[in-house]
Amino acid sequence: MDFEKANRELKFKLCVSGAAEASHCGVEAFEKAKELGRQIAKQNGILVSGATTGFPYWSAMGAKEAGGISLGFSPASSLWEHTEVYRLPTDYMDMIIYTGFGYSGRNLLLTRSADAVFVGCGRIGTINEFTVAYEDGKPIGVLEGEWDTDEVIKNIMDKSHRVNNKVIFDSDPARLVSKIIAMALEERKKHYHVYKNADGVGGSVGNRIL
Fold it and tell me: In a 3-state reduction of DSSP, which class is residue 97?
């Protein structure tokens, strides 16, 4: 497989994690979320979210307004359950994958499907997604703001007894997206060459280039 060709053709899947109920996040949260989504689209990424309300919803709005692609992972097992039981929106989604695994199961699939994860203002579900991505060694961009989620994450990292140099903190969405995409590209290159050296053929495992 030609890595350079595949790398040009495959967009990065960039997960946005944040609070579905964001009243505690402050007045700048939605505009920051929207700008994060815009920057993901402008910098040629695909936005991946939990197909929910609040911070992820506004990031999906920003991505679509910038002409990007928005993919959602729902905790529900069908469109009916998504809208009628979970009361979740379908706006600003190009595609929704109905996992049927509830919130915690959805969170695992959501972060595992992404090349990198962005964390905005959040609650316990956001922290769950962060810790899964942290454990998996994903590149993680933590968006700083007037909320306290970034400080909670710093405290978790400080007390985790596990060094992780793939977490970047920044208050500027454009700069944060640029840094995380650069890190994700390095991860893609590294994993490609690991697999290539392992099989001596071409750096793919199943349908994965990473």
Answer: strand
Among the listed residues 72, 116, 67, the one whose alpha carbon sits nearest the alpha carbon of residue 95: 72
Domain parsing of the chain, residue ranges: 3-199
pLDDT digits (tens, 9 = 90+) for 189-202: 887 665 555 555 55
The residues that bridge with 149 in the sheet, in sequence order, are none
- Determine the topology of domain 3-199 in CATH: Rossmann fold (3.40.50)
Indicate the DSSP class of residue 23: T
Ramachandran region of residue 194, left (φ > 0), alpha (ψ -120 to 50) or beta? Answer: alpha
Contact criterion met (CB below 8 Å) for 156 and 133: no
- Element containing residue 18 per DSSP (H, E): none
CA angle 101, 126, 205 (to 5 degrees): 60
Give CA 161 to chain center in angstroms. 24
Which residue shows structure tokens 């609040």?
54
d(CA 41, CA 37): 6
Provide the token pair at 153: 């994450």
- pLDDT, one tens digit per residue, over 104-141 is 999 999 999 999 999 999 999 999 999 999 999 999 99
Q: Pick the closest to residue 99 from 107, 90, 89, 111 (CA basis).
A: 107
